[in-house]
Write the C-alpha cells for this entry.
Amino acid sequence: MGMRDFARAHHVAFFDAMATELPDDYASQEVNHLTLGYFAVGGLSLLRELDRVNKDEIAKWVLSFQVHPEAHGDEDNGLFYGFCGSGSTKFPLPNVKEPCHSGSHLASTYSALAILKIVGYDLANIDSKALLSSMKKLQQPDGSFMPIHIGAETDLRFVYCAAAICSMLGDWTGMDKLKAKEYILNCQSYDGGFGMVPDSESHGGGTFCAVAALHLMGFLQEDLASNLRDSASIDIRMLLEWCLQRQVTDGGFQGRRNKPSDTCYAFWQGWWCTEDHWRLPFD
C-alpha cells in the first residue's frame, strides 16, 4: 500500500462491525461500552457512512444507560445522574422493581452525549437538570473534576469532559468555569505544553484537553495564532512551539519529549491543523 492510500472500505467495514457487535476480545472492556460505541459511531460519521446504522436504535441504546433520580430532589443526594458505561452496572436496589444503575461516570456521559449528537438526537429531551446539578458536585476546590461520585483521580481529562458536556447541552450551570480555568492554567508546564495535573510533564492528551476546554468555555481568542497577542489565559507562543516540536521524522506525532510517534497523537496534536485560526505549519 502506498503512503497516500487509505483502505477506506476496510475501515468502514470495521466500524460497522464494531457498532453492531463487539468480538470476545473486548470482554474486558465491558464497562466502557459507551466509549467504544462513540469510537465506532464517530468513525462511521467521519467516513460519511452513518446510514449503515439504525440511528433510532443507537439513541435508544445510549439512553438506557442514563441514571435517573428515584424521586424529586434526589439529585442532591450525592450521586451523579449522568450515564454509565455499560448495562453491567445495573444492580437490584431495595423497594425497586427493576434493577437500577448505581452511579455514572463523567467520561461515559461525554461519550453518550457525543453519540446522541452524532445520530441527530435532540438533547433537549435529556434530563439535563439532574445531570448538571449533580455533575457540579464532582468539581473539586481546585477546579478539577473527579469522574464518579465516590471519588477517584482528578485531572484534565475530566475537566474537558465536563466542559464538553456543558457545551453540548448548552448549559454551563454544571461547573464553575473560573475555577476550572484556574486549574487548567496551573497545569501548563515550563515548556508551554500541559501536563495532566499541575507540576507534571507536558503531554499531548493533556494539552488537547486543556486548550479544548478553554476554547469551549470561551477563554481563548480565535485569532491568537495570527496575531500572537498576549493571551489572558495561556502562554500561546510557548504552546505553539511545543506542539510543533511534537512532530517527529516519520511524520507522526509523539505525546511527550523523547517518545516514539503514536497514531493517537495524530489526533491529540494534529487537531491543531484543522483549526484555521491557529495556522500551524505542520508537515
Summary: The first helix runs from residue 8 to 20. The CA atoms of residues 170 and 249 lie 41 Å apart. The two ends are 21 Å apart (CA to CA).
